[in-house]
Design a protein that fits this description.
Layout lengths: L1 H18 L25 E6 L15 E9 L5 E11 L10 E8 L6 E4 L5 E3 L7 E6 L6 E2 L2 E9 L12 E2 L1 E4 L4 E5 L5 E2 L10 E4 L1 E8 L6
Antiparallel strand pairs: 1-15, 2-9, 2-12, 3-7, 3-8, 3-10, 3-15, 4-5, 4-6, 4-9, 11-14, 12-13
């Protein structure tokens, strides 16, 4: 019964997303969800950036203790260290109050494909400074977070604010991608796939997040 209630709450949230779906100039363009930038100046480290590009203009007003995250694949099959997280935030309505966001990292269960064990041992908090639309980079290098082989799941959770509001800001922007890599949950319940509201066939609605990691390699003396 508890799982049914949680699922219904999540479904209602994404109904709001669907109602606020808008097209923009990039809506019909399909771009890769992952890009790689190599820092050739430092032969001891390679800087990989996995980022999402805008495909549509979707927002929803999140609620307290709602959590949404994106699964990132380590396609290079080399262990590394997570440097920063990038969030693409939508403009928050003036009547909606902001709240702090908790950033979490999880291992992926090999059987279910869902996030399970939390990687970060300490709480990581991001405090939004304004209600404007934009991109924010959150440095997490000091938390010594590993970039494991396989996959890692990165999420944001909307914490209660001082006003005890049910509806909060900021909103995370959404994008379209050919894979379903975004999962959501409410009050630390079970994870569910993000509701797909894409108008494009064979594309799925995913949160817009980026991940920057450093991966060591042997110095090339040639």
């Amino acid at each position: 019964m508890k799982n049914i209630i949680q699922f219904l709450l999540i479904f209602l949230i994404f109904c709001v997303k669907a109602q606020e779906l808008k097209k923009d100039t990039l809506y019909n363009r399909i771009t890769d969800i992952e890009t790689v930038i190599i820092n050739n100046k430092d032969y001891e480290k390679i800087d990989y950036y996995f980022g999402l590009k805008q495909e549509n203009n979707v927002r929803f007003i999140p609620i307290t203790n709602y959590e949404e995250g994106v699964k990132f694949k380590n396609k290079l099959e080399k262990k590394g260290r997570i440097n920063s997280v990038t969030l693409f935030l939508h403009k928050t309505d003036s009547k909606v109050n902001l709240t702090n966001l908790e950033i979490n990292f999880y291992k992926i269960d090999s059987l279910s494909g869902l996030p399970n064990e939390k990687i970060n041992k300490k709480q990581i908090i991001f405090i939004p400074q304004n209600k404007g639309r934009g991109k924010v980079n959150i440095n997490v290098l000091d938390y010594n977070l590993p970039f494991p082989l396989g996959e890692v799941f990165v999420s944001i959770k909307w914490l209660p604010n001082k006003f005890n509001d049910k509806k909060l800001g900021p909103s995370l922007r959404e994008t379209n991608y050919e894979e379903q890599i975004t999962y959501v949950r409410y009050k630390d319940g079970d994870w569910h796939k993000n509701l797909n509201i894409s108008r494009e066939q064979n594309l799925y609605t995913n949160g817009m997040m980026g991940l920057e990691v450093y991966i060591k390699r042997r110095k090339n003396n040639d």
